């Protein structure tokens, strides 16, 4: 419970001294825009009813007072009266609260291979389905570490789509609602051969990129074919530490990605490292197979290649790589804007069959918030 000790104001600004601690200095325009009264916000859904230009450019605080623990503000020139709950103001005011970005590197638990000495984030699918606590922990692992393993998932084709329905929605693509990963004659994508695949994020040529990828192992009797994961955010922070100029180059210069076959021609123009308004990493993209012709200003080419090589070299470091072999019944769910994956080569003898599918992060985050608030 937050209480106001005292207030002072002039036409442009209201200052609050809090009993808890701290001081807020709030501009008149922000207070009017954040009015919580029924005339300004729909009482049912909380959505704003006024447009920014409904507020006079001459908005001013005419009077402010404390009544029954509430802050009352009367605005000029229209005489609008607002009541603010001090608790709401304390939790939401821009002086005391930093904007929380749950996609950014600062909200994540960055990892290396030795971060998981005991076990990888792993949950049994039957528990995940039956216990809200287990599901919550699994979805939190995706948010915090960028991946989770579910085991004891029924080895049935199409099961992967049912798993997606437990937290979000299938992101269908030109590959269909799901795709098969097994050796194919005349493949349109190297993923469908038994060659090793270097570390990458999927589909950077899509706009927007699918935020989540799932891989469900149905059969695995080949030698090799281990999966490798890397934390692309960790690698980006190492790049920034080792060479801030290289980090700036990869976040400021946008490049093109492309995928083309007989029926699709997908293109995007995006940075390898995407940052938010505080220069914090929020997405990485890295895919040697689908990077398109690199078109940058002539004076950026050398610097770009130095930075690109440097980031690729960091991603090759063994101390960043988690290696494991997906077993039948295991499903890997990972953040395709953060966690890179690679596959070691495997012998063509024996069978290996995975199904893959995409979903979006916003659906998973929404389910997570609902579970956390339940
Ligand atoms: Fe992939």
Give a structural overview.
The chain is α+β, with helices and mostly antiparallel strands and 374 residues long. It folds into two domains: 4-92, 2-Layer Sandwich (NE0471 N-terminal domain-like); 105-373, Double-stranded beta-helix. 23% of the residues lie in helices and 29% in strands. It has nine helices and 20 strands. It has helices at 28-33, 86-92, 125-130, 132-144, 159-165, 232-242, 244-252, 301-315, 361-373, and strands at 4-9, 13-18, 23-27, 60-67, 70-76, 81-84, 122-124, 147-151, 179-181, 197-200, 212-220, 227-231, 254-260, 265-271, 273-275, 281-284, 321-324, 331-335, 339-343, 352-359. The strands form six sheets. Strands 7-8-18-11-20-9 form a six-stranded mixed β-sheet. Strands 10-19-12-17 form a four-stranded antiparallel β-sheet. A hairpin with a 4-residue loop joins strand 13 and strand 14. Helix 4 (132-144) crosses helix 9 and helix 7 (244-252) packs across helix 8. The longest helix is centred in the C-terminal third of the chain and has 15 residues, at 301-315. The chain is elongated. The two termini are 21 Å apart. The relative contact order is 0.16. The mean pLDDT is 94. It binds fe (ii) ion. Fe (ii) ion binds next to loops.
